[in-house]
Design goal:
There is one protein chain. Helix content is 27%, strand content 25%. The chain has 415 residues and is of the alpha/beta class. It has a seven-stranded mixed β-sheet. It has a seven-stranded mixed β-sheet with strand order 10-9-8-11-12-14-13, with helices on both faces. It folds into two domains: 167 residues, Rossmann fold; 215 residues, Rossmann fold.
């Protein structure tokens, strides 16, 4: 049995080592053998290692056999220390064996790990893990080792190189721990640019709301982000050239935002008592906030007070009377629940008609409204969709024209 003391002092992992474990490495494989120190199936998450505990990982012709490439890399990122080295060897996509092996679920190009870089335009939509590519090597079959101009020939021909090797450096920020909710339950606040808890669907749903608002706010405006949480959305608004303020009741969330997303001005206070003068902001965002406050009407009154005449309000809330529940109510006479789910932080959730009514009651003029996440897919299908690149957006996108029946209602209103 692999002792806890050994695990605490380990430095290097040889994943799926088989009988050929590298000297000085801890062997990991799903089949027990004399060379295997830890028996674990790499398709099973989480891996049995503590966060930030590993100095080096070696995996040769392993990743192409695993079910979820992104999830595997996120696990390696989690257990590795900042600056740790990960060596990955795999089948090169332009070789017949890459396609010829029926057990291969993935193969590699020179750009396979680009998505794990901040510089990739879709990085935040796919993963929170971050790696720097230190080196890429292409290796040819032995019989072609002396072939000249191989890199040039590879541009036009296949089967020149059979293997590709990456050396990756684990990149982590100094403040990785997302604060829990104020009642100690993790997940109530997450950093959607680099989520540690949320799924791809949740990440896209949160970021999309901010992107929608940013397009309509423009630049050089004075903007307040109420319920800013970890500050990722506040920073998105700020980066468009706006004077931006983030407001949240959680001191831990504000501290995280100040360290991770500097630039905006952050204020720790309640949304029911906003510490700014009348007619101060050109635009206000308040995504998934109103259901948390003790007095929603007071919050809307405060927003109306500090918003300039004809100013913009972008606000969202969960809808407990979405399509699936309306169908159950219609067909089986099931009563509507008060909440979308068992969220202990939500005090009052507004169904669509209630939400629109309270906004109009507080003198806001509805400019546009849309829905997110139309709940027409069974949970098993949603889990399958979540794993497919890009497909996780489908339930969110198709909910757009049906706010009344979606699980989240997003409203653009004017003062």
């Amino acid at each position: 049995m692999y002792s806890q003391e050994t695990q605490r002092t380990m430095l290097k992992l040889n994943l799926v080592c088989g009988p050929d474990k590298k000297e000085g490495y801890i062997g990991v494989d799903k089949i027990k053998a004399p060379t295997v120190d830890i028996v674990h199936d790499l398709n099973s998450y989480p891996y049995p290692f503590e966060d930030n505990s590993v100095d080096e990982v070696y995996c040769s012709h392993v990743l192409e056999h695993l079910d979820d490439f992104i999830k595997t890399m996120e696990e390696l990122w989690r257990i590795c220390k900042p600056g740790a080295l990960i060596i990955v060897k795999g089948p090169y996509y332009k070789h017949k064996l890459a396609y010829g092996d029926p057990t291969h679920k993935h193969f590699f190009t020179e750009h396979t790990f680009d998505v794990f870089s901040d510089r990739h335009p879709l990085h935040v939509f796919y993963t929170h893990a971050k790696f720097k590519i230190r080196e890429i090597k292409l290796k040819s079959a032995r019989k072609l080792r002396f072939l000249p101009f191989k890199s040039f020939l590879n541009t036009f021909l296949w089967n020149i190189f059979s293997e590709i090797e990456f050396k990756l450096i684990v990149e982590k920020d100094n403040c990785n721990n997302v604060p829990t909710g104020d009642k100690g339950v993790p997940g109530e606040r997450d950093d959607m640019c680099k989520p540690q808890i949320s799924s791809r669907t949740e990440k896209y749903q949160h970021l999309q709301r901010y992107m929608y608002a940013i397009k309509r706010i423009g630049s050089r405006k004075k903007v307040l982000d109420i319920g800013c949480g970890t500050g990722y959305g506040t920073k998105m608004i700020f980066d468009k050239g706006n004077e931006t303020y983030g407001l949240d009741i959680s001191e831990a969330a504000i501290n995280y935002a100040q360290k991770k997303y500097p630039g905006p001005k952050y204020v720790c206070c309640s949304a029911e008592k906003i510490p700014f003068p009348n007619n101060y902001f050109d635009a206000i965002t308040a995504f998934e906030v109103i259901e948390h406050v003790q007095n929603p009407e007071k919050m809307l009154e405060e927003i109306y007070r500090v918003l300039k005449e004809n100013g913009d309000l972008f606000i969202s809330t969960p809808n407990p009377r979405h399509m699936a529940r309306r169908i159950k109510h219609l067909l089986f006479k099931r009563p509507f629940p008060e909440k979308l789910g068992p969220n202990i932080y939500h005090i009052k959730e507004f169904y669509y008609e209630e939400f629109i009514e309270i906004l109009k009651k507080k003198k806001f003029k509805i400019k546009f409204k849309y829905g997110q996440n139309l709940t027409i897919f069974p949970s098993l299908i949603l889990k399958f969709i979540e794993k497919l690149p890009g497909f996780y957006k489908i339930p969110i996108i198709i909910g757009y024209p049906f706010p009344k029946f979606s699980s989240t209602v997003v409203v653009w209103a004017k003062k």
